[in-house]
Amino acid sequence: MLRNSPKLGSRTQAHIFRFSLSVLVLSLILAVSALAQHRFLENGNPIPRGVEAGFFGDSPTRSKLDLSGQWSYAVEDGASGTVRLPAAYDFVGKVSFTRNIDITGDQLDKYEFHFVMLGSNYNTEVIVNGEFVTNHAGGYTSFIAPITPNTFQVGSNNVIKVVTDNHLNARKSIPLRSMVWGWRNYGGILRDVFILCTPKLFIHDVALRVPSVRDSVSATITATAEIHGNLPSAPVSDGKEQLGFSFEVFDKISGLSVGKSSIVPLKKQGNDWKKTTAEIVLNEPKLWSPDSPELYLVKCHLVNGLQQSKEKPSTVIDEYDLNFGIRTVSLSGGNIIVNGKKTTLKGVIWQEDHPTWGSSLPYEEMEKDIVLMKSLGANAVRFGGHPPHPYMLNLCDRYGLFAMVELPMVNVPANVFQQEDFLDLATMNLKEMIVRDRNHASVFAWGIGDQFESANPVSRGPVESLVRTAKELDSRPVYFASRSLQNDVCIDLVDLACYNVSVNDAKVFKRQLQDWKEQHGSKPIIVSRLGVEVEHGNRNGYSDPLSYEAQAKFYIQHFDIIKSLEYDGAFVWSFNDWKGDVPALTVSSRDPWMHNLGLVSGQREKRIAYEAVRSIYRSEKFVALPIGNYSSTAPMIYVLAGLVVLIGVAYFYNASRRFRENLNRSMMNSYNFFADVRDQRIVSVIHSTILGFIVCVALAIVASSILYHFRQSWVLDNLLSYVLVYDNIKESMVYLVWNPLKCIAYFSVLFFLCLLALTGLLLALSPLFKARMYPYHAYVVAMWSTPPMLILVPVGMILFRVMETSMYVVPSFILVAALLLWVFFRLLKGVSIMYEIRATRAYVLGTFSCLAVLGLVYMYYDYTQSTSTYLAFMYDVMMKSQ
After folding, report:
1. Is residue 843 scored above 60 in pLDDT?
2. Highest mean pLDDT among 51-55, 198-202, 534-538, 587-591
C-alpha cells in the first residue's frame, strides 16, 4: 500500500501536461495550415497551331476547340476560385475544373468530337453536360476519348467538367507513392487540353514504318491507318464502296512532294473498318540523325474515289498530318549502329519541372531547354522517369536528339510488380506511350522502368510481358535501368544493358563498370544515370564534395573511365534541378525538396559542370578547377555538449549528498531504492527532473551523432520517409539532422516529453492493477529508471568519430540497444514495486505489451505503406547493388 502521498508535484505535472498538449495542438494546426495552401502554377498559354503542335497536328479537314485559359475550380475541402489552364497544382487533393464552351449548329452537323488531354495527374474523370465521357489513370500519357453524339448542344451553355485527383498509392499507382529522389507529384491539367473536331469518318491513328533502307538509294515507307466512324451515306459505284486511304511525303524544307502512294480501298470487318496499309518507295532519302535531323512532312488522306483522274479527282474526307524521319538503328556486336555508323550516346536526363510553372512548362521554355542541350553537345535525352510532353519529342525531331522514353515505374518491388492489377495498368500506360510517340524519328528506345527489383526472379514474368507488348507495337529497342550490379535476372530480356551508377568513388565506379560490362558485354552497355548532388551556391573548390567545382571534377573523372571502357553511352543526372515529392536528407540545403543535381539550376542558370560536360561531349579542353581549402571535420558540438553534461553530472554528484546517494542506491540496489520511494518519499522532484533532463541530453547527443553519421545514406533517407508519414515532419527532421546543435536541443525536449508521457501512462494503467499511484511516484519511477543511460555521456562525445571506422558501427548500436533494454527492465521493476505485483508478472506483461504495440504499429505501416514489401526491397538493393 502507498503511504504518505506527497502534495508536491501534482500541479507541476498538470502544467507540464497542458504545455505538451498545447505544443502538439499547435504543431497539428501548423501542419494542417501548410497542407491547406492551394498553390497553382499557371501556364495558361493557348495551344499552338500547325503540324509542330505536338499531338494531332492541324489539317484542312480538322479543327481544334482550344480549352486553355480561364476555368473555375473547386477543391474537395471547399476552396474554390479561377485558374488559367494548363496549370499544375502543388498540393495533394481532388480538384474539379469546369468551364463552358460554345458549339455552333454547323459544327454539330459536320464533326465528330473527341476530348484530348495531353497530360493530367493522376486520376482524371471527364464529364460533358452531365454525361460521363471517360476516366483515365496515369499523369503523363496522353489520351483521347470520343464524345458521344447529341452530348453537345447548340450554344454556349455546354459545360465541361474535369476532375483530377493526384493521390498516389504504395502498391497500385504508376508511379508509386512517395519516391525519395523522385519528381514532384503535381496535380491538375498539366498540359494542353482541347476538343478535336474530325469528320464523321476519320483517320484515328497512323503508324509509319520503314521496313527497308538501301543505303542512300531508296527507302520503303509504310503507313498503316486505323479508320473510325461512318459517313451518313457511304459512296458507292458499281455496287462497291469508293472509300480509300493514301499518303504523300513532302520535303520539309522545300515543300515539294517526293513520293505518293496509290489509293488502297477500305474494307469492313463487321461494323468496323479493317486496318489499311499503303506503301511508298522513296528514292535518295534524306536520313535523320542527331547530326543531321532531316525530316519529311507526311500527309495521310482518307478519300472518296478510288480511281483518280483530272476529270474525276478523289475527294479528301480527312487529312492526318505528321512529321517523320527516316533512319536505321541496329544493335550489332554490342554496338549501336545509326545509319551504318557506330554511335555513342552522349545524353542528359531532363526533369519536367520548373520553379515557376512546375510540370506545366510553356512551349518556349521547353525549346530553350532543348537548345541548351544541343549547345552542350548532347545527342540524346532520357526523360526523367515518365513520358514527356509530346512537344518535347517534336523538338527532339527538329533539333536532333535521340529520346529515351519510359514508363514512370521507379523503385517498384517485385511483389508489387507481379500483381495483376499493377501489371495491367503498366501495360495500358505502355501502349498509350508507344502509340502516341512511335512516329517520332527521335525516339531511340522504350523504357519499361527504372530501378525496379530486377534481381528478383519474380520480376521476370512482368518484364517478359511488357517487352512482348512493346515489340508488338513497335520495333525499337526496349530497356530498363538497373541498379542490381550482381545477379540481375531480367537484363537478358531487353535490348540494352543500362546501369544506374550510385557511387562517387572513382575506383569503385571503375570496378562496377568493369563488372557490368563483363556480365552483359554482348549488348550495348549504357550508363543510364550518372550524377552527383551539390549544395546550391557552393563554390568552395573541389575539395568540398558538395561544391560546384566538385561536381565538374566528378564528371571529368568518371567520363574518362567510361571512355576508357568503351561504353556505348552515358546520361548525366541531370540536366536541370527539380523539385521532389519527398524532402531529401542527403544534402545540406535550405530547401530539402529541391534536388540540386543539375548542370543548370531550376532557373536554368549554368553551373561549372555544364561547361565541364560540354568540353567532354565536344572533345574540347577545359580550364583547371580550383581546389579550395575545405577540410572535413567532426562537429565539435558533440564534444562540447558532452563536456557540459559531464560537468553537470559531476557537479550535482559532488555538490549534493542526497543526489549522490540516490544515484548510487538506484544503480546498486534498485529494488530497495524503489521500495523506499514507495514507502518513504525520499527522492526530490528537482533531483528527479535534473537526472531525467541530463539523461535526455545524453541520449539526444547520441541520436544526433548517429543521424549525422548516416546523413548521406539513401537507406536512412528512405526509412525516414516510410516512418515519418507527413512530409513536413521529415522536412523538419532533415533540417535537424544537418544542424547538430538544434538537433540536440529539440531531441532533448522530445525525449523529456516522452518521459512525461511515460509518467502519464503509468498513472493511467494503475487502476488495471488495483493500485493507487500518485503522480509523484510515477514521475520518480520514470526518471530514476534511466541512470544507466549516463554511460552515454562520454560515449556521445566520441561516437561520431568512432563510427567513421565501419567496424565499430554495429558495436555502437549494440551498446545503445543494451542500455535501452537495461533501462526498460529497471522501469518494469519499479512498476512492479509501485503496483505491488510480482516482478515476473511485470516483466512478462511489460514485454508482451511493448511487443504488441510495436506489432500494431508495424501492421499499421504495412497496411498503409506496404512496409514489409519495401523493407525487403531495400534489403535486396543493398545486397545486390554493390
Report:
1. yes
2. 198-202
- Its CATH architecture, for the domain 41-194, is Sandwich (2.60)
* Rounded-to-10 torsion of CA 175, 176, 177, 181: -70
Contact 658, 752 (CB under 8 A): no
Q: Indicate the CATH number of 338-617 among 3.30.450.20, 3.20.20.80, 1.10.645.10, 3.40.20.10.
A: 3.20.20.80
Are 165 and 173 within 8 A, CB to CB?
Answer: no
The residues, any chain, with a CB within 8 Å of residue 626's CB and separated by 6 or more, are 541, 542, 549
Q: What is the pLDDT of residues 321-348, one digit of tens each?
A: 999 999 999 998 899 999 999 999 999 9
- As a whole number of angstroms, the distance between CA 120 and CA 140 comes to 7
DSSP calls for 76-101: TTS-EEEEEESEEE-S-SEEEEEEEE
CATH class as words, domain 201-324: mainly beta
> In CATH terms, are 41-194 and 201-324 the same topology?
no
Q: Residue 123 corresponds to which amino acid? A: N
Instruction: Calculate mean pLDDT across residues 613-640.
Output: 87
pLDDT at 607: 96
34 phi and psi angles, rounded to 5 deg: -65, -40
Contact 223, 247 (CB under 8 A): yes
Q: Is the peptide bond before 626 cis (omega within 30 degrees of 0)?
A: no
Q: Are 107 and 185 in contact (CB under 8 A)?
A: no
Instruction: Please report, for the chain, the start and end positions of each structural domain, with discontinuous segments joined by +.
Output: 10-33+639-837, 41-194, 201-324, 338-617
Question: To which H or E segment does residue 69 belong?
Answer: strand 69-75
Q: Is residue 689 within 8 Å of 683, Cβ to Cβ?
A: no
Instruction: List the beta bridge partners of residue 438.
Output: none
Task: Tell me the percentage of the chain whose pLDDT exceeds 70.
Answer: 93
In sign, the C-alpha dihedral spanning 27, 33, 34, 36 is positive
Report yes or no on whether pTM surpasses 0.85: yes
Rounded to 5 degrees, φ, ψ at 102 are -95, 130
